[in-house]
Target: Urease accessory protein UreD
Amino acid sequence: MDRVNVRTGAGVRSLARIVARDDGRGGTSLPVLESDGPLALRRTRATGSGARVMLVGAMSGPLGGDHFTVEGRVEEGARLSVGSAAATIALPGQAKGEARYDVRLDVADHGELHWLPEQLISARGSELYVTTRVELAPTARLVLREEQVLGRVGEEPGRLTSRLTVRVAGQAVLDQELACGPGAPGGWDGPAVLAGQRAVGQLVVVRPEFAAEPVAATVLGEGASLVPLAGPAALVTAVAPDALRLRRLLDEALGSLPQP
Model:
């Protein structure tokens, strides 16, 4: 279901909802696939027993004053992969104040979610606050990738604040926030954070077997590291000069983990 919203001086409110359910025949159905305004959801061809959904930008944004929300739920035994058709670009808008982009994900026991959107680009003059919150049951599985690029080619970035929270069985395994760009706390571009790089990313992998056999902390070449989290989870963080190099680092890190 798609509904078109008109952009006004107060900004646009947009909501996309996905529910994935075990269909009882060895596959995954999508009883809920709803979107409106700038957010459009499309089911695409998948391999195996899972479902695959693409998030398509139907309008420019988020602009100043916009508030986008994506909610996803994977029910028991279902498998879902979500990507996006193109990068998301945060742009300045006519409305005052920051834009918001909230992602809320919930995975039940024996469910599996791969959340793999394209990069988020913070354009000059924009102001965006992104929150991603994930709730996982004890036997749920997750692969989640976040990538932020500070400015387009030859451009200074906007203000970008990103918070990522992951909970397993009600216990927090990760809660981190990064603020970059004009007005962000001092030091964000220094050697202890981005060290002058313009692309930063995280990869969170949650697997029940990590509880008994945690991954070992490892430096993954220049600009990337892998660390175990407090629970059945691992975190890869990476910085790079551009989006292409960042994606390569994260893909290599995922490939280096033991296969389930």
Observations:
- Residues 243-256 form the longest helix (14 residues).
- DSSP finds one helix and 19 strands in the chain.
- Residues 2-196 form one domain.
